[in-house]
User: What shape does this take?
Amino acid sequence: MENLKEESVEKGDTDRALLENISRNPNSVQDCYVSYDFQENGNTQENVDRKLYENVSTENPISLEFPRKKDSKYKLEVKIENKDEAVLHKSGVEIHTRSEKTK
Assistant: This one.
């Protein structure tokens, strides 16, 4: 099985949180299973187990987007596996508004 190197792009705008997982291999096209837990202020908003994303490639990356409120704190845990259940990517990120003291 091909060992893929992938990169994640995480963005936190004022009204949305976005994670894109992009394969570094431009010739790779494969089906992936994505599991994730998205929390707002410690409460699970969305929990998904092994959702199928077909034909994932550099032109068709895995993209997760969630609504975001200015004063809320968010946590996203993500795992991406291939059809053989090999983990291709696993990460966690917290997104929150910067406090006045850290500006």
